[in-house]
Amino acid sequence: MSSFGIDDLPVRDELRCKSPYGAPQLDVPVRLNTNENPYALPEPLVERIAERVREAARNLNRYPDRDAVELRTELAKYLTDTGKYAVGLENVWAANGSNEVIQQLLQTFGGPGRTAIGFEPSYSMHGLIARGTGTGWISGPRGDDFTVDLAAAERAIAEHRPDIVFITTPNNPTGNAVPPETVIALYEAAQAAKPSMVVVDEAYIEFSHGDSLLPLLEGRPYLVVSRTMSKAFGAAGLRLGYLAAHPAVVDAVQLVRLPYHLSAVTQATALAALEHTDTLLGYVEQLKAERDRLVAELRAIGYEVTESDANFVQFGRFADAHHVWQKILDRGVLVRDNGVPGWLRVSAGTPEENDAFLDAVRELKKEQN
Ligand code: PMP
Asked: What does UniProt give as the signal peptide span (predicted)?
């Protein structure tokens, strides 16, 4: 029995020899590897969540609101207040994390015989979820400085005529943002090739020096902006992602969503968190300052750092990034090796966590010299 493994099962061909998403969850003193918000939710919010969940619990014998109307209305308000563009309930859809939003978009607009493109290195789950939905994945190019090389990207879109174009801004794992002009040009290139969906993944937008690309939705019915409460709202454990788009897109994703996909507990918890938006966004300001400090100090120590608009920083260059990752881990600090040759990524933590990380890499630099 023990020799029986995954290869003995009739798994779909496109899943053979693939690895599941696997950021290590190690029990070490300082965990700066999954771009989480290091601050626990404030106690008044914890209380409010408990209250709202208690109310929801009284009705758990019933299915939840299938269309999550109250939650989508509040998310629309949040986007309108912060995004410099007015959206309503009809423009917003929510699911269990933006990963599920992305999966629903791929199920709706991708699938067997269709393709999606992303400009890599970028968020690896775009490609993995594409494969999981039977969508062909095309790895589009980035420049050596990790910016999207517009001419090369336009060529790739014209050549492959993908059904879905993913643009991650700020990009994970590199941290840099994609300028709005580039997104507009890629949208036009995608529509010239054939009507295809352009998904702007703004998981980290609240940490950016720049604005959300929500205003680009005006007059662009094939554009989707996807967001999450996992990062800025400090609620990765909640599993709540959402999108803003033309109402037709919201109608379309309902064709694939599972009935009652968002539990009443999730909806209640997210609504409580949205009541505390101002407090939670206060932490974002602290994290942005810490991110800028990490960039400055890493450069002062002598590392190369990619410009960051996110809550993490990509630093290098290393002949053997994995070896350095292990040495940092040996000092009790977990960072991320995303497999980008020569580079590692560190999430902005609390000032104390960042100090521990900076001490570790300072020591390493001394050892090397
Ligand atoms: N998009 C990007 C670019 C991400 O980095 C992540 C999480 N690491 C996600 C989407 C998914 O986030 P979640 O499912 O927690 O909303």
From this structure: none
Q: Whose CA is nearest to atom 2 of ligand 1?
A: 203
For the segment 329-364, what is each residue's pLDDT rounded down to a tens digit? Answer: 999 999 999 999 999 999 999 999 999 999 999 999
62 Cα: distance to centroid of ligand 1 (angstroms): 30
The answer to whether 276 and 263 have CB atoms below 8 angstroms apart is: no
User: Do 294 and 190 have their domain in common?
Assistant: no
- Per-residue pLDDT at 2 exceeds 80: no
Q: pLDDT tens for residues 65-86?
A: 999 999 999 999 999 999 999 9
pLDDT at 1: 56
Residue at which a domain ends, from 257, 276, 295: 276
In 3-state terms the chain splits into helix, strand, coil percentages (rounded to 5) of 45, 15, 40
Please check whether residues 28 and 100 belong to one and the same domain. Answer: no
Report the alpha-carbon distance of residue 172 to residue 174 in Å, rounded: 5
Output the pLDDT for position 13: 85
103 lines ligand 1 (CB under 6 A): no
Specify the number of domains making up the chain. 2
Look up the domain containing 347 and give its range: 6-42+278-368
Considering the domain boundaries, does residue 64 fall inside one? yes
Considering the domain architecture, whether residues 117 and 220 belong to the same structural domain is answered as yes
CA of 136 to the centre of ligand 1 (A): 21
- What token pair was written down for 364? 């390493």
Residue 232 Cα, ligand 1 centroid: separation in angstroms? 11
Q: How many helices (H) and strands (E) does the chain have?
A: 11, 12
Candidate of 102, 172, 262, 347 to mutate for ligand 1, largest count of ligand atoms within 8 Å of Cβ: 172
**Is residue 168 in contact with ligand 1, taking CB distance under 6 Å?**
yes
Does 87 lie in the same domain as 38?
A: no
Instruction: Give the pLDDT band (50/70/90) at residue 196.
Output: very high
Whether 226 and 300 share a structural domain = no
What integer pLDDT is reported at residue 15 of this predicted model? 80
Query: The CATH number of the domain where 286 resides is what?
Result: 3.90.1150.10
* C-alpha 308 to ligand 1 mean position (Å): 17
| Mutation choice for ligand 1 from 37, 228, 242, CB with most ligand atoms inside 8 A | 228
State CA 225 to chain mean position distance.
11
Q: Are residues 195 and 225 in the same domain?
A: yes
Please report which helix (H) or strand (E) contains residue 180, including its range.
Answer: helix 180-193
The pLDDT of residue 369: 67
